[in-house]
Fold this sequence. Notes:
The complex is a heterodimer.
Chain A: H1 3-25, H2 31-49, H3 52-60, H4 66-116
Chain B: E1 2-9, H1 16-29, E2 33-40, H2 47-53, E3 58-60, H3 67-80, E4 85-88, H4 100-108, E5 113-117, H5 130-147, E6 159-161, H6 163-171, H7 178-188, E7 193-197, H8 215-230
Parallel strand pairs in B: 1-2, 1-4, 2-3, 5-7
Antiparallel strand pairs in B: 4-6, 5-6
Helix pairs in contact in B: 3-6, 5-7, 5-8, 7-8
Amino acid sequence: MNLTLKLFLIILLLFQFILIVRVVKLKKLSMKYGSFWIFLLILMLIVVIFPELIISLSKLFGFEAPSNMVFLLGFFFLFYVIFILTISISIQNNKIKLLIEEVSFLKEKENSNGKKR
Amino acid sequence: MKVLMIVPAYNEELNIKDTISKIIEYKKKSNNEIDYIVINDGSTDKTKEVCEKNNYNIINLIHNLGIGGAVQTGYKYALENNYDVAIQFDGDGQHDENYIDKLVDEIKKGNDFVIGSRFVSDLSKFKSTGTRRMGIKFLSLLIKICTGKRIYDPTSGFRAANKRVIELFSKNYPTEYPEPESTTSLIRKKYKVGEIPVEMHERKHGTSSIKPLKSIYYMFSVSVAIIITSIWREGK
């Protein structure tokens, strides 16, 4: 890999890292997902510094070109992320439903108590 | 001083009665005014029924929030009811109630936050398994590097907080594996954090919440949490 490209990618990853830390600090992203993304950044950094890893791996698995393997892995990974997202949306929907039910229940109780007095 | 014991409990039907009776027993000989509140974190077993049968003070969360949310509920309760000190005390019988007054004494001496530690001295015979102890040593070293302060038992869940910290925690408390992260953020914000030796016991029933398979990723995410907490300024 060309040195300029390598440097460019490393700088890009650095910016991504700063972005992640910032949103975590501003409490826009929870620490759990923050550390997940940082884990991914570290993996990408390893690949950028040692691209030979990907090349020999793709040979081992019989890919025609290393880029094919990278794209396939990227596709699988994104698929997995979206899958996890839909799971967590479903969990949240359930929790919100439960909250609405409980709060409505409480309000109703409060109202009927008021009427009795 | 008015002291609140925050007892988070998730599926502790076998341990909770023991834990609370010990606190009630200790209340009589303590120099402080001790209350307790059980935070039932949406248990699926009979924890709620056991507590209600024995007339314990309890807040039932309608859904499982995880340890961070349960403990934060306790801090909110402490703030609401104007307690001077809040002490986290596990519902599983690991912690020894005889050290409550010692923790409160450290708060009286001017500490904002005091951790009951297994590793400050050789007092505690139960020190957890070898691999977990190595993990704790590593986190301790990481906190030392990031903040400059040595905390010997950063994962201890037996901790006392004064009013300032109660106020802070009731607004802001981490969700997953909250102990090391919250301690780091306190040191970083220049709160006085103390640590005293306490005894801990092996839990009598049930298993701990941290599963061995996930522990490597746990170590990674806690480390990231400690590092992120200690670098850059805090967002308001």
